[in-house]
Amino acid sequence: MELSRYLLFTGRLTRMEYQELTLDQHLWGVPTLDNFPPEDLCSRHVDQIADLATLRELPFIEVLRTSAVGAEVCARSGKNLEALVDECNEWHRDSLEPICSYSTSSKFGRGIYEQQYEKKLVGQYLVAEKARDASTLIGNGDTVVLFEGSSGLYVGLAIAAVQEGMAIITPNTALIREHRDNPAVAQGFKLEIVGGTADVETPGGRCEHGGVYGETCVQQLVHAVSKEPPATILVVTVSGLLANAGPFDTGPIGSVKRDLIVRALKSKVKAVVFVTDYRKHIDTANKTFGASLFNNAEWKKYTSQYQEKMHIVTSPPPKIRAALVDGRLTGMEYGARNGAVTAEMGFGPEEVHYNQAAVQLHKLLGSDIVRGVCQPRFHEAFKAILGKAYYEKIRDASVISFSIAIPGVLVTEGGIRTWLRGILGSADIDVSKFDIRLSRDETGTTVRISATGNAGQRLKEFAEAGSREQRVTFMRVTGARSLRLDIGDQSTVVDLEQV
Question: Per the domain annotation, does 88 fall within a domain?
Answer without folding.
Answer: no
